[in-house]
Each structure stands twice: as C-alpha cells, then as structure tokens.
Amino acid sequence: MNLRVIMLAVTTTLILTLAVSPSAAATQPVASFADIQFWIGSGTNRTALAIDFNGQTPTDEALVWGYRWDGTATGSDLFQEVVAADSQLFAKLVAIPPEGEAIIGIGYDANNDQQFAITGGATFDELGIFHSPSVSDAETSLDEQDLYAEGWFLGYWHLGTQADDPAGTWSSSQTSIGALPLVDGSYVGLAFTTDTESTGAFPENLVSAALPQLSSGDFNGDHLVDGLDFSIWQTGLADSTSLTAWQAHYGQAKNRVLAVPEPSSGILALTMLVVTVSTRHRTPKRTSH
Questions:
Q1: 175-197 pLDDT per residue, tens
Q2: Which candidate among 39, 40, 43, 107 keeps its CA 20 to 30 Å from the CA of 68?
C-alpha cells in the first residue's frame, strides 16, 4: 500500500469515526468548552453562543455552538457565522441604523428534515438569513416540530453574557449584538421572552448543538459529496456497494460551512501520525538533490 493510500486510510478513518460516533451525533450537556461539539471558525480565541427558544422556563434546553477567531470580533460576527455554518439554524434580521442589523426571529429545523419555513412568506438565503424590511411579532414555524420564536413589541431576544462558566451568573448586555465585543473564554446568550419588561431571561440547561449527520456517499466526512469521495471509493476504502449512494447524492452539501468538533488528544495524535509518515517519506527526496 503506497503512502497516498496509507494517509487516506488514516484520515478517512479519523473523520468517519468523528462523524458517526454517538458523542458526535447526540447532544450533550455543556459545562465547559470541551463539551461543545459544533465549532466554527479558526483562531486562538474562543467563545460560545447559547440560544434558548424559551427563556421564561427553567426546563427547556439551550443549544450551544463554539466559535474561534483572531483579532477582534463582535456578537454579530459570532451569530451570523454560526447561522451560516449550521444548516438547521435560521435567522430573521432587520436593519436598525446606525447599529446595523437586529435579531427579530431565530429558527431551528429540529427534526432535521431539511425543510424550514415560517408564516409570512420569508425567504431565507443560502446562509440561512432573511433580511426583513420591517419588524414583526406574529410569525410562526410552518412545521410544529421545528423551533421558531420572533418578537419586537410583544417579545424579544434578550442578549446576555457570561465570563467563563455557563452555570454561573449571566449579565444583561448593555449594548446591541452588533456592538458587543467578543471576549476570549466567554459565553454569549440569546434567550427569547414575551416579558418585555424583563431583563432576566438567560439560557439554561445548555447542551451542545449536534454536528450535521453525514450524507450517504460522503466517505471522507467533509459534509460534501464530491470527487474526493469517489477517489476514496476507487481505493476500496468504501464499500463496493456504496457507488450507487455516491451517484445519488453527488453535489449535495449537508451544512453551509464546514464545521468541526473541538479536537481531542486522540485526534491530534492521529494528525501527528499522518504528518510524521509524510515527512519521513519526503526526506530522501529533499536530500537527494
């Protein structure tokens, strides 16, 4: 077996193990960043976004995504990049000069049937966002199994922050989400409430948003069914009967932007193995000239 196949086998095994293991497919309680499965972005700074569709009850769960960045970033950067990355998440925004766009509604395709719509005829773009020309209060999800909450006068999405512990005390943000500077190690929370006089709605019972399940034919686990998957099928690393699945789903993307879980020591060890094997193979070529 040549180097290309060895490296392909190692990386494919790694990705598929991550993608189909129970910890990657099911939500889990979030007590720290290590519990977050769905990460977006790259960089040395980290924060988390928690969304609670019913901030008035202590029993429902809030979904959590992780976000990495370098330099400076705002709450809007965090929110819109998370929405763009998770194909189950949707947002309805309205322009509020000079602060930028404000959140009217947030939706989640809870049954993951790749179908999400709300009353009123909103058309969500390829990033999952509908830029509304005006504020609204009354729209609901067309699928009762999905989650959607919106409000402006009769309810609203309350913005809160927590320094470093999601089970600790949250504070109401004193700025809009567009003006909120992100702080490394912090949590940003959005909780919907119909109590327009309250500033005490915060995310509770945090659980990690699940990574998208793989499409059939996605042999390398990158959430795209493309030529790279066909190359894996050709090497024999995928089952010989899987070609039909690849053909049926070619061109499909399971999520809008590739998202990955927080790396574990096992993942880093396998990555080091691939790098080491590759380096040892190339060394004679560099020194032979």
A1: 999 999 999 999 999 999 999 88
A2: 107
